[in-house]
TrEMBL record:
CDD domains: BTB_POZ_ZBTB_KLHL-like. Residues 103-129 are annotated as: Disordered. The lineage of its organism: Eukaryota, Fungi, Dikarya, Ascomycota, Pezizomycotina. It comes from Clonostachys chloroleuca. This is BTB domain-containing protein. Residues 103-113 have a biased composition (Basic and acidic residues). Gene3D superfamilies: Potassium Channel Kv1.1, Chain A. It comes from the Eukaryota.
Length: 262
């Protein structure tokens, strides 16, 4: 990959998974041979240690160690929303997840009360009140899945959720929404790469973002600002390396032409 494609394409997108095992999917649907239960806010997922433990070191340790989970074969996941844990479970058995979200404003109005994010996650300014909630929720869903994947140490799901978030940012870029998104996502996940990804998009659209009056009123925090500066530095380094390489190539070609003329 050339330096120019690196600057324009930024982070490579992980191939979004479409493969799944029919056998594992059948096990999940029927709960056949289930040997432990994951309980999330009253919803029960009847799962299989051989499937889950190889993908989640945390759950593996809980079910094997000197913890109550190893005796009861029940793992509690009340800290996450059931819809998020459904995505995690789907990934364990299908290597993919599909977020349920409305695709039209009309559908969104019908389901708005069911898809409201937690109050702690929404810190919108009055000027950003016109930002479509459907767009915000679409991004937040992948970050919440990422947070659960980070908590349960499901590395491949962390990668997939970041890839889905990146794909959404690329395919449905919303300039006015982005500042609020950055502020809302702050602290939602322990995966540092999510924040680096947002910083990268901030750098890519820096000229547009700085023209928004509400940007000056939002507190992105010194940590995210530092990430943006680091991303700028990396891009400048790539650009500088590219210019040096181009200069060296031109010098070599000039030398070759000079030798031919002789």
């Amino acid at each position: 990959m050339s330096v120019w494609s690196e600057l324009s394409g930024s982070v490579p997108v992980m191939e979004l998974r479409n493969s799944s095992s029919p056998v594992l999917s059948q096990l999940l649907q029927s709960s056949e041979y289930s040997d432990f239960t994951l309980v999330c806010q009253g919803q029960e997922f009847h799962l299989h240690k051989n499937v889950v433990c190889v993908q989640s070191p945390m759950i593996s340790a809980a079910l094997r160690g000197h913890f109550k989970e190893s005796k009861t074969n029940i793992v509690n996941a009340d800290q996450f929303d059931p819809s998020i844990m459904q995505c995690v479970v789907d990934f364990w058995y299908k290597e993919n997840y599909r977020p349920h979200r409305p695709t039209t404003v009309k559908e969104h109005r019908r389901t708005e009360n069911k898809t409201q994010p937690a109050k702690s996650e929404v810190k919108k300014s009055k000027k950003n009140s016109s930002v479509p909630k459907i767009e915000i929720e679409s991004y937040l869903h992948h970050v919440r899945v990422n947070a659960a994947a980070d908590y349960y140490q499901v590395t491949k799901l962390k990668e997939l959720s970041r890839a889905k978030l990146q794909h959404l940012l690329r395919s449905h870029w919303h300039l006015e929404m982005f500042p609020t998104l950055v502020q809302t996502i702050h602290g939602m996940t322990g995966d540092e790469e999510v924040y680096n990804l947002l910083a990268l998009f901030a750098v890519r659209h820096m000229n547009e973002l700085t023209e928004l009056p509400e940007v000056a009123e939002l507190d992105w925090g010194s940590e995210f600002t530092l990430r943006v500066l680091r991303s700028c530095g990396r891009n400048m380094s790539l650009l500088s390396s590219g210019l040096r390489k181009s200069h060296d190539d031109c010098a070599r070609q000039a030398q070759m032409l000079d030798n031919i003329d002789r």
